[in-house]
Amino acid sequence: MAFPLLLAAFGLAGAFFIFAAIGIGGSVFVVKFIPETRGRSLEQVEHYFYALYNGNGKKIVPETSVLNNSRPAALR
């Protein structure tokens, strides 16, 4: 539903530019904020997110400490 509105407002090139900008922005977000999980088991990934957010949605430890297999001070 967004394409016809964007097409009318910005033209064909503008509509595709906006979609491209959204795609690039999404890619930058994924690269910057989503941790790499290749080569890790589901249990390791689950432990990472549980330790990072302590199961309640509140971030408690730096995100790099669990991925590097070193135990953060909060979990010792």
UniProtKB/TrEMBL annotation:
InterPro entries from the UniProt entry: MFS_sugar_transport-like, MFS_trans_sf
A Pfam short name: Sugar_tr
Family annotation (SUPFAM superfamilies): MFS general substrate transporter
GO molecular function terms noted in the UniProt entry: transmembrane transporter activity
Keyword Transmembrane applies: yes
Principal location listed in the UniProt entry: membrane
Record keyword Membrane present: yes
Name listed for the protein in its UniProt record: Probable metabolite transport protein CsbC
Encoding gene per record: csbC_3
